Amino acid sequence: MTRDLHFRPRLTRRDMLRRSSIGFGMLALAGLMADEAYAGPPRKAGSLAALPPHFTPRVKNVIFCYMSGGVSHIDSFDPKPRLAKEAGQPMPFKTERTMFNQDGNIFPSPWEFHHYGESGIPVSDLFPHMGSVADELAVIRSMTVKFMEHAQANFYFHAGQPFTGFPSMGAWVSYGLGTENDNLPGFVVLGSGGIPLGGLNVFGNGFLPATHQGSFLYPDRDEPLHNIRPRESDALQRRRLAFVDGMDRGFLSDTGDHAPIEAAIRNYETAYRMQAVVPDIVDLSGETEATKKLYGFDSENPQKAAYAKQCLMARRLVERGVRFVELTMVPTNGNTNFSNPWDQHVKLERNHGINAFQVDQPIAGLIKDLKARGLLDETLVLWSGEFGRTPFVQAADGRDHNPYGFSLWLAGGGVKGGTIFGRTDEYGYRAIENVLTIHDLHATVLHLLGLDHTKLTFHFAGRDIRFTDVHGHVIDGILA
Fold first, then answer.
1. How far apart are the C-alpha atoms of 203 and 195, rounded to whole Å?
2. Alpha-carbon Rg of the chain, whole angstroms?
3. Using one digit for the tens of pLDDT, what is the confidence trace for 192-223?
4. Among the four residues 212, 414, 438, 477, which has the most C-beta atoms within 10 Å?
5. Cα–Cα dist 325/216, whole Å
6. Torsion, CA 144, CA 149, CA 155, CA 157, rounded to 10
7. How much is the pTM?
8. Please, how many CA atoms are within 13 Å of residue 352, restricted to the half-sphere of its CB?
């Protein structure tokens, strides 16, 4: 019997669209996922492609001037006249155990404070150049940390945890936003030889893909990046990279462990592309003499001139799309604290003076230069050490570590310049008003970059981990 095709049910256009809708959606999703700029999970292992933020950002980049060792807040941005009135007397209340527990009597600041700008922010004579940009600064006087040992505090300040193995602030920013320049990493550390206690892992990627760790650039060396000037032809180098790539991909297919291998492959590629752009970044011949003088290039002090180069290089890197740039202190002659130069348990006046002379003009020059070029509105500058110092003396002329209340400042886009936020007691010992934690600072930095700190997570060890752990609140009081 022959089947009559006349009675076969017709497939209408509406039926066809309804039945194949999932297929059309998957085709569209496949197209999106093929693009490295796709912002949703899962992100390609080690990808540095630029990603959109969670909401409209106030800044695109961060420059972090880290003062390793712990700057004395009561000698810089938090004047305490009562220390002078009661100099040499015992502290009038019980204090916590200190790092060395050799507490002396009240020790007033050796420096005078002066009010700067329309805001009248008081800044000590340690930092007259920073005083000249006081109206750009949001000074926080009530920061606290949980640790008073340098390595633990360094990790805590950078990664929100007191030990190695967790991603640093720069790594999280790189992971969350990527880089705006395909030829440069998202996180660059400007090295000087002075690595904070805790070592290179202070700038590490932790459990994030290796492409997000800090890439070191040494502005003051003839070769600022190791092997940046290839000693072989481009064709031969490409052949070597192709060979390594083939070996890595073979290993990847055998083991199935994708993330570390893919991150390594991307690291090789990024390093190769950096060879083309880094020589231009470190070539300062196009900078005017006035600009160099603004930063302090003309200083006869080699450490100051070296830090000035770091600051100028930081500006050039954020101009080219690097998300996070961290500067390191330059070790000085006569200061044996190579890794933590601000750690003055003795000779506070001498060595704080040496360190301040190194960084004061270059950092102020950086802020002025960024503002003149219209870059300060899209850049966040952060200045801090890992903790403060005690109001009582240690030995004859030093101060011990103080994690219970200290100062730092931020400047740039989204920040209310000319602001003082928080307060320590009359001795500068403990934060007593608007008390903040490092998690609050981290949440605020991410917020200014357009990232919600509760949503920026990475799945590791069976749970979604975030930079701020389960803590942190945005510091609304310093936001413009």
1. 10
2. 26
3. 777 899 999 999 999 998 889 999 988 877 76
4. 212
5. 10
6. 20
7. 0.85
8. 27
Q: How far apart are CA 287 and CA 186, in angstroms?
A: 24
Helix (H) or strand (E) holding 67: none
* Tens digits of residue pLDDT in 228-246: 455 556 666 566 666 666 6
Residues 146-170, mean pLDDT to the nearest whole number: 96
Helices 234-255, 258-282: axis angle to 10 degrees equals 160
| Beta bridge mates, 406 | 143
Of all residues in the chain, the percent with pLDDT exceeding 90 is 69
> Phi and psi at residue 163, in whole multiples of 5°?
-145, 170
With b for 16 or more beta-carbon neighbours within 10 A and e for fewer, the 314-347 pattern comes to bbbbbebbbbbbbbbbbbbeebebebbbbbbbeb
Cα→Cα distances 158→33, 281, 465, 466, Å: 32, 26, 16, 13
User: 207: buried, middle or exposed (CB in 10 Å: 19+, 13-18, 0-12)?
Assistant: middle
- DSSP assignment of 147-203 equals --SHHHHHHHHHHSSSSSSS--HHHHHHHHH--S-TTS-SEEEE--S-PPTTGGGGG
Per-residue tokens: 92: 């009038």
Helix (H) or strand (E) holding 294: helix 289-295
Nearest 5°: the CA angle 456, 457, 459 is 165
Using CA atoms, how far apart are residues 271 and 213, in angstroms rounded to an integer?
13
Q: Fill in the DSSP letter of residue 90.
A: P
